[in-house]
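Bench log. Compound arrived from synthesis this morning; before running ITC I wanted a structural hypothesis for how adenosine monophosphate sits in the protein. Inputs:
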Amino acid sequence: MSSKPLPTLPILPGATLGILGGGQLGRMFTIAARTMGYKVMVLDPDFASPAGQMADVHLQADYTDHGALKQLGAACAAVTTEFENVPAASLIELSNHCRVSPGAAAVAIAQDRSHEKSWLREQGFATAPFALIDGEADLEAALAATGTPALLKVSRFGYDGKGQARIGTLNDARAAFREFGGQPCVLEGFVKLEREVSVVLARSDASECALFPVAENRHENGILDVSIVPARVPDSLAQQARDMARAIADKLGYVGVMAVEFFVVGGQLMVNEIAPRPHNSGHYTLDACVTDQFEQQVRALAGLPLGDTRLLSPVAMVNILGDRWHNGGPHWDALLAHDNIKLHLYGKEAARPGRKMGHFNVLDADLETALKLAEQMRHAL
Ligand code: AMP
């Protein structure tokens, strides 16, 4: 691959930005970047990629395709990613030719659950009790350490509750481990969740950090269902979550947008996961904050000053899954009849159960009123 000089920062509108991955997160990045006057090139193997539809150029190729990476690196001043499973080697390859954020090292930690959990423990961040499973022989001691019930989670490529099994006995654990093909896993003690919260933040090259307000998240079947902002937790706990998220970003030397998901157990925070990208629980920022998480991703990538993360209104975000396309829905008319609901659809053709098709944000000066309407629309849709 021929090298070109790395761009001087900040990279200004008119330049081309690239993104690895063309799902909904890539799509919203692309929209933000184009709104600001950048050109966007998306690399994604799927011809119907949601981001590809919005981009100036869609390179339809695999993330390890050297030719495509060369083209991307040559055309773009900077490249980012929208998902953690992009091969770290591809980020390294690209970084020889253009600016890349986040860096391969941080993505490598977040894309492997065993790695991530071990790193968090080494760095002194509280997590649910866990043990690493490399082979079936590890299960018995691991279960003794975590107690039951527990969850067995594959280390790589699990998402939205996929690649997870609930474990009550050693036999369950053995069966689940075999079902996952004997791949490395993490066994986690099942903790009694009072709430789940998350923090989305951006960190710049200059170690400047801008944190979005803490979101309270409700999951259904392991998939995010509703985010409520501001989170209904004591101020001190919200501040602790923000401090921990910032400390994690600092320790990773992170540049870009990332999210940290937490469990609240016995009034204390435990880190669940780090996402090296914008996050579903940050979609509320699209309508409720001065700067949204995707503009922030553009700003961090381009080396611009980070935007103001101030919350302009309480908000409830509801995910719209493919399940809604059954039984005659979705009823967009019911949703769009409300002047304080903002709809976002991702341009996906096939509405499979559990597939994230879009989301909507309900804004109201009173959080409980917003949440009530969100619940009502969740059912009416
Ligand atoms: P994950 O993919 O690991 O984020 O898990 C998806 C969801 O499952 C979480 O957001 C929680 O609602 C639930 N969950 C995951 N791990 C645990 C645990 N150790 N204890 C209790 N609930 C959990």
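What the model suggests: The chain has a mean pLDDT of 96. The chain has three domains: 16-100, 129-189, 193-380.
ITC booked for Thursday regardless.
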